[in-house]
Amino acid sequence: GTDEVVFGQVGGSILLLCRNVSKEATEVTWFQGDPHSFPPLFSSRVSLPPDVRFSLVNNSSLSITELRVQDEGNYTCKEVLNKTDHEHRVQLRVASKSVLRLNLLPSVLQVPKFIWHRWKNNIKEVQVIFFLPQGLAVGAVTAPSWSLSSVTQSCAPLGLVSDCVLFLLTDPPQSTPKCWAETSSSGLMLQLFCSWPGGYPHPTLHWREEGHDLENSSWVISSTSSSDTHVETLNSSHLSHHKVFTCVGSHVVKQEQPSCTVEIKIPSLESEPPKTCFVGDNVTLTCRVTESTPAARISWLRDITQPEVEIQPGGRFLITQEGNVSRLTIQNCSQGTDGGCYVCKAQNPVGLRELFICLTVKEPVNIVGIVGAVVVLSLLVILTVTGVVLYYNPLLCLRASQPTSTCSAVPRHPDSGDVLVLVDSEDDEEEKGDEE
User: Fold this and answer.
1) Can you say whether the dihedral through the CA atoms of 410, 412, 418, 420 is positive or negative?
2) E strands present in 305-406
3) What residues contact residue 383 under an 8 Å CB cut-off, 6+ apart?
4) Lesser CB count within 10 Å: N end or C end of the chain?
5) Where is the Ig-like domain (predicted)?
6) Do 126 and 208 share a domain, yes or no?
7) pTM for the full model?
8) Which domain holds residue 133?
9) Of 250, 251, 219, 244, which Cα lies nearest the Cα of 232?
10) pLDDT (tens digit, 9 = 90+) per residue, 147-205?
11) How far apart are CA 114 and CA 321, in angstroms?
């Protein structure tokens, strides 16, 4: 329910007219929003806290200076006449960046044709301001399909108009275009995205490759333009490694044409050393994509005997992926079925790369048996060394029952038949006594 739309610029001034105000009106009140939901903003009778930015002109029209973005919205003028309410609704739009202003003579509009063509095709809302001798401005909005003649007709009442100004509400994007590449849902096409948001009207975006526009290329499958983002879908048969695409943006109020680029790349894989797994244990195979534009799809295959059969997660196989790293975990390794080479396959619309990772499955080692064998061998070595020492050194003897006993022996040749005799020292002394 808006009766009128007016435009302003941040930091500028605007006059909201309360149209068809009767001279008999006893009160004029302005609301920012619905009068039934919001308190009065300014009134001709009620004393409200002063705001130097708001004032009433001719006791009816609302003047706003130093416009802010938050001033944008719907305003309602309400007059009271003989207990009858009359309302006039105005929508205020505030341009946060810039307003292009052209001074147009009432008789001749001196506008370059190429500028007019760009404005006509891009700008959907226009305001024509009439500056009256008393300084008041009256706004009028043309239809979306506005033309030069419609503006000329708006400036027709020469008797009341001292100047006619055309305001074109424009907001050029402040950032630069952003480009990126993705793989289509089918996995066979390349999609180029170019986004340049934040402008009014929407900018013009187009893709180029090797000096010519993609819109004229026969290998463009589809071309989509959605708001501030433009998407090109390309046939992968014409793509190659390190091919560069450029998106160029243009806006009606920006002289420069900023651009961004995308360099497509075939996937590159990091090599993985062979793996070993003992029967009954778990093992993880890792596949890492070092570069790929757009991002590659990673899959695992058993070996080259069935190259088109992918390993599906489930059972003893667990597949996880974090970013550009994919991991295949094999649980409860089996020597009969899990040994061999696995293939990591990384693919995008530019091409594919494969990496072979070989797995060896071994029987677990019997540690207890090995330790027992080592102990037995150690004991045998000790016994053998002890026997050899006792055999070749007859002076060694051991007597546990009599610590005072002595050991006497006569050196003998190893091949002699001599016998080693152990003599008790007490018996030896008795024999000496008898001899005496």
Assistant:
1) positive
2) 317-322, 325-330, 340-348, 351-362
3) none
4) C
5) 11-77, 173-263, 267-348
6) no
7) 0.58
8) 1-103+112-145+162-169
9) 219
10) 555 555 555 554 444 455 555 667 778 789 999 999 998 888 999 999 998 887 788 89
11) 53
